[in-house]
Amino acid sequence: MERVHCIVAGAGVVGLAIARQLAGEGREVILIEVEKTFGMHTSSRNNEVIHAGFLYRPGSLKAQLCRQGRDALYTYCVERDIAHRQVGKMMIATSDSEEQQLAALMDYGEAAGVNDLVLLGGEEARALEPSLHCQAAILSPSTGIVDTHALMLSLSGDVERAGGQLSFGSRIVSVIASDGGFVVAVAVADGETYEIACDVFVNAAGLGAEELSRPLFGTGHTPRIFFAKGNFFSYAGQKPFERLIVPVGETLSRGGSFTFDIGGQGKFGPDLEWSETVDYRVDPARLIDVVAAVRRYYPEIRADALTPGYSGIRPRIARDAAVSDWLIAGETAHGVRGGINLLGIDTPGVTGALAIATHVAGMLH
Ligand SMILES: Cc1cc2nc3c(=O)[nH]c(=O)nc-3n(C[C@H](O)[C@H](O)[C@H](O)COP(=O)(O)OP(=O)(O)OC[C@H]3O[C@@H](n4cnc5c(N)ncnc54)[C@H](O)[C@@H]3O)c2cc1C
Q: Could you tell me if the CB of 154 is within 6 A of ligand 1?
């Protein structure tokens, strides 16, 4: 049986970043991906926002790695000429209770070392964004957007240049700990299955990570992963805001965020729809709720300017986004030598990917 040093499962942005990091350290790496190419799931179905790092509970992995990942990502984008723009974001409140949530986020930001946040009153916010109606806002100048496809293309090129291999159309069907390493069974497109041994196995399979984790790391180290689907609605016409507009609280989960991609195409969403399966169809009926959420801060919104766009699924280890952290576990946690298990890598996984990769490499040293 062929043996390599390291196998990474899943070529989303996180698996690619980890494979790049490990191959760059001189390790022999194979990245195994079931789809025909990289980034076919969550990594290409998101807002493409480079988060500043003030949205996450102090002390959480998300808070730590988002901030580090943001800086690493901006640097990487400049070095590799990856399209990105530091457009800034306004996190807005439209009621007294939402204003209190903004105050808590200012504290989160301070704890995470995000020290460029500015708290604005309603009029100050409107002076910057004339179409915006809100009571208060946090201006985050270091939030940006990135072309995630270009990012993943660059990461995959780095993997190959460092001698790593990408194996597409290959589904990992089982992983067994054996002889101080692992035996990985892989099914390829023609129905054939082969086995390959490795010393290090990294589970970065996103929505498929729970399935690989349970038999290998045990039920006690494999929380149930909830699928938090988010639907997007494309906005036709000139974008109404120059910055990203993100409401706090319920308006956010009802799909009230406004973001745009690097080409300037605006969209509203994601909303929150719990799902049991990977089904990316967008139910047009959800549009009504999204429009109602957006109206709270942009009363002029016309429902006929929105059309169902795409959706993505956030894997979460808890239903409550405020407590659902990333789970990145190594031998000290689960006892399986050479195994790294990543579960619940939801937002801000694009922002945090390079920092997650450094973190994983540190766990293996
Ligand atoms: C609606 C939404 C909005 C978001 N917005 C943002 C944002 O603005 N900014 C941000 O930073 N983050 C955002 N995120 C989060 C971010 O997209 C994810 O955290 C990130 O893409 C996760 O990457 P991943 O590599 O872990 O997962 P994935 O991209 O899902 O990759 C996992 C890969 O594993 C493969 N796989 C699964 N099982 C197997 C198997 N058995 N064998 C082989 N391969 C397998 C899959 O095919 C897949 O390609 C958002 C997510 C969603 C859903």
A: no
